[in-house]
Description:
The chain is of the alpha/beta class. Helices cover 32% and strands 19% of the residues. Strand 7, helix 9 and strand 8 form a beta-alpha-beta unit.
Amino acid sequence: MVNCCFRNSLPLQHLLLIANAAILTQALRIVPPCMALSLPNSDIGRQLTRSRFLYSSASAALFGELAYLVSGVVSPDAACAADEKIKGKNNPRYLDSEVQMKYGEGKDGNPRTRGVLVRRFTGDSTPYTFAAPRPIRLVKEWPDEPPFTKKDFFRADEGDDENFYTLPRLVYHIDEPAVATLTQYYRNNIPPGSSILDICSSWVSHYPLEFKEVMKRISGTGMNQLELMANDQLTDYVARNLNVIPQLPYEDNTFDFVTCVVSIDYLIHPIEVLKEVRRVLKPGGKVIISQSNRCFPSKAIAMWLDMNDRQHLELINGYLKYAGFGPAKAYDIQAYDPENKFNDPMFIVEGTK
C-alpha cells in the first residue's frame, strides 16, 4: 500500500524545479543592478527560447551569486562601488596638487626648494564622447631590411637631450580630449593585474586613477628624474636617455604591456629601443604606441617632420616590423568635443610579441 503522503505529492522533478525557482528568486533579489545581464546586440530580435532564457538569465543570476560567495564579497552595494571605481565613474575631472622640487643637493650646491601647482587630467567626468576605436588599415609594404639613412634621424637641435630636458615640464603636450580618450583606451584594453612599463615617461602616464591599485606593477623610464618622481602612478622608475643608452634596465619577459605616449618621434634609435621593448615583454605581450600631431620640432627626427599623420602610422608599423613584432594594428581614437571641432587627434599603433 502506497503511503498517502507520497501519493498526493508532486512528482520529484517538479519539486526540484520549484526548489530551483526559489533559489533563483532569492539570487535575483540580491544580485545588484551593476551585475545585471542583458543580451548582446546580436541577440536583439532573436526568439528568446526557454533554454536560452535559462542559460542566459536564471543561470547567470545563480552563478553570479555563487561568485559572490566564493570571492568573499558580502555586500552587493560594495561590489557595485568597486565596479563603479574601475569604470572611472564618480572620479573628479581634475586633481590639483603642489609638487615640491629641490635643487642643488651637491656639496657645493645651493639647496633651493620650489613648489609648483599642477593640474592633472584624470580622463573622467568630461563632456567628451569616446567612440569605439576605428581601425586604420596599414598598407605600406616595407622591404626586408630597414631602408632608413642617418639623414632620416637628423634633428635640428643635435645638442645634448639631457640639457634640453633639464628643467621639468609639468605640463601636457596634448589637449585634454586627447588625454581623456587615451586614458579610456588604457582602461578598456589593459586588464587588472597586469605589469606595465611606460617608456619616455614624465610626470603623468595617462593611466586611469585606479591603475595604481589594480595593476601588479607600473614601471617607468624617462629623461627627467624630477618628472618621474612627481608621477604618482609609477611603482618604480629609472631615469634614462634612450637616445644614448637604448637598452632597458629590466629582465626578459617582465611586462604584459609597454606604453609610449607621443614620444616615438624623438627616438634616434627607434628600432633598437623597440627590440628592447620586445625583449622585456612577456610572450603575447603588447606595446601600445600612441601618437598625435604635436611635437618639439627641433627635437623630432627629420623624416617625421616630412610626414603626415597617416604616414606616421605606417612608419611606426615599419619600426615594429624591424624590431621583430608581428603585424601591427592601428586605430583612430580621437574624442569628440562638443565645444571644439579642432581638438588634437589621437592614434594608436599596437604590436604583439
